[in-house]
Write a structure and sequence with these properties.
alpha+beta, Thiol Ester Dehydrase, Chain A, elongated, binds coenzyme A
Length: 141
Amino acid sequence: MNEQTNTTIAKSAVSQTTLHSFMVFPEDLNYAGTLFGGKVLAEMDRAAAKAARRLLYGTPCDGSVTVSLDKVDFVSPAHLGDFIELTATLKKLGRTSIEIHVYVSKEDTTGAIAKICEGTFVFVSLKDGKPYPHNCFFSTN
Ligand SMILES: CC(C)(COP(=O)(O)OP(=O)(O)OC[C@H]1O[C@@H](n2cnc3c(N)ncnc32)[C@H](O)[C@@H]1OP(=O)(O)O)[C@@H](O)C(=O)NCCC(=O)NCCS
């Protein structure tokens, strides 16, 4: 794939957000009866992985892995039947690193929406299992 194609992908990624969602089922609850935090973290990682994979389409890289996740504060609980919405947004592109912010909210059975948490993930682009430059960058226009 040529340089121009990669540049085009990176430019279009500036304002692009990746959406991901799920409904809270009984197996997602902790013993307090609210959504298990580990489930939320796993879904955040999936949302970020989706954004990273889309960025890498058309590049020489064959995948990416999570290398880092910053502090996550859970500010409100979610309950059985809530819709959990995750929005992943590309924030920063390094040589092989891809920084992605994930915002998580809930929509309860009355339609009320509230923030659950947010966090920033760093992924590393790979080829044959080793870090490999993704050659993507944001336009300065
Ligand atoms: C990700 C992995 C391949 C990186 O290997 P590495 O030898 O540390 O790679 P490098 O030192 O070349 O760093 C690669 C990039 O990651 C960045 N990076 C490495 N560790 C980081 C961290 N803790 N936080 C943020 N960025 C980090 C580097 O700054 C570099 O970015 P750049 O290329 O944009 O400058 C390796 O650490 C690994 O396999 N980790 C396990 C990943 C995994 O299995 N994740 C799933 C959860 S278990």
